[in-house]
Amino acid sequence: MVKKIFSFVLLACALSAVQAQPQAASYPAKPIRMIVPFPPGGGTDILSRLVANKLTEVSKWTVIPDNRGGAGGTIGIAEAARAAPTGYEMVMGQKDNMVVAPWLYKNLSYDPTKDLVAVAHVAYTPVVIVTSVNSRFKTLADVVAAAKAAPDQITYGSPGNGTTIHLAGEIFNTAAHIKLRHIPYKGSNPAMMDVLAGNVDLMVSSLPSAMGQIKAGKLRALAVTSARRSTSMPDVPTVAESGYKDFDVSTWYGLFMPAGTPKEIVATVNAEVNKLLATPDMKAAINAQGAETQNMTSVQFSTLLKTDYQKWKGIVQASGATIE
After folding, report:
1. Signal sequence span per UniProt (predicted)?
2. Of 91, 220, 222, 276, which has the fewest Cβ atoms less than 10 A away?
3. Numbered ranges of CATH 3.40.190.150 in the chain
4. What is the mean pLDDT of residues 139-155?
């Protein structure tokens, strides 16, 4: 009897292994939906479409971007977390909604470290403080002087409450001992339009969202918030160089799938994305947006997620910021 049970267990394991191999080998057998948790036109949308188009072109997969914006990207992330773990639903997440939002929102419906699996890191980018080229602000010092003269009157737009970009503005308020008034938008593009029109004084933005308008001469970059200057804009000083020592806020983008997605599929997607990121064309396309490619294994990306998740808990709590 024991021998029969043991034989049955061995047979079940063997069948499971055989079934898993074709699953990975035949993947993908149908189109993959890539949730973009922000509206069209912003940095997340731009990078998502670059990856989706290149996977479709080079890997011969069919990857379809699907914009599900709102609430600083948390609506789209929540939708991905609820999706079936079949490998046919993924989301382009970033530091904003994966490691900052969970500490800001009181009733967030997902835990990024439990409800999603980190699949492939895509890019790293500084955050940039910009203003209209017609603005009176020529330097970051001009902004600080104006804000001290008129507290809560100088405005800055962001892609939404709870984003790294929103927090970058709040952290700068603390560092400079000023009070800029935050105006949240439902994505980068509407915020950008108001800055260009002069309806908002400044915008704190990811570089991919702002780069097109900076290159077109319509936006003036005052400073980047990373520890070092951006390779895409070497002439733009850092906030730290502008007098605020150790100031360092940056963001990253990466692909996630629902928890429980087969490991073989996660490994397949990771390999294909990393292959793309290593090509000169893809590197150039991402660099042109002010971002830098950064290849990681799924395990390395997961470690980054968990490390940043704990790091930003302290930052958010120190800021006192919360969102209902």
Report:
1. 1-20
2. 220
3. 31-124+251-319
4. 97
